[in-house]
Amino acid sequence: MALRADPADLLARTPLFGGLDEPSRKAVATEMREAAYEPGQVIFSRGDAGSDLHVVTKGRVRLSVLTSDGRELSFAHAEAPSIFGELAVFDGRPRSADATAVNKVETLMLSKVSFVRLLTTRPSVGEAAVRFLAGRLRDADEQLEAIALHPIEARLARFFLAAVRQKDPIGKAERVTLALPISQSELALLVGASRPKVNAALGMLETEGAIERRGQQVVCDVAALSGIGRLDDKEA
């Protein structure tokens, strides 16, 4: 399997390793190995013993849990250059969620053994891990706040803006095209709403010129989405 980008360059775009200097990123890259998964393949299941974190280099991964009545609840999607499965590497405990390939997926894997070795030889990796985990906690707080307090159109606007920031981290583009190869039901799970309400909210965003749907792509107007995403803050 041929990688589409140099591993160290890819790591520079990740929230975990992006702040490292080039020699440290290259040291991390040499410890990683490649993996590939077919659409629908389970990468790992909740409760599995975990010893690797993954950096997505291609494709999309669904992160989900099963509810008590057997329904699958998706809470995030990971695509390049997102990281998932890191908790098992940091704390050594079983997997806390299921990870499933939505389409063809390629990842770089870093084992717990390699991670501990890097902590010993590259202290900056440990500092980066602390910053990364702090960011994860902040994101979780914001997600809970959004579901509890914000209207659905604002949640969707923030969902799209988060994806835009991942694709355009510098933030220079006024319009960004996103791939969205998921159903409205899946999107509803991600923003904590019902499918009919998400469908209505998507229509509202399109009417306002914030998005334009083109099959499995969404063209995002960053300024319009930002305004809608802040509406509830202004009302407060």
What can you tell me about this protein's structure?
This protein is an alpha+beta fold and 236 residues long. It folds into two domains: 7-146, Jelly Rolls (Sandwich); 151-235, Winged helix-like DNA-binding domain superfamily/Winged helix DNA-binding domain (Arc Repressor Mutant, subunit A). Helices cover 45% and strands 24% of the residues. The chain has ten helices and eleven strands. It has helices spanning 7-11, 22-30, 86-91, 112-121, 123-149, 152-167, 184-191, 195-207, 222-229, 231-235, and strands at residues 33-37, 42-44, 52-58, 60-66, 72-79, 83-84, 98-101, 105-111, 175-179, 211-214, 217-221. It has a four-stranded antiparallel beta sheet with strand order 1-8-3-6. A four-stranded antiparallel beta sheet has the order 2-7-4-5. Strands 9-11-10 form a three-stranded antiparallel beta sheet.
Q: Which short descriptors sum up this protein?
A:
236 residues, alpha+beta, Jelly Rolls, Arc Repressor Mutant, subunit A, 2 domains, 4-stranded antiparallel sheet, 10 helices, 11 strands, disordered C terminus
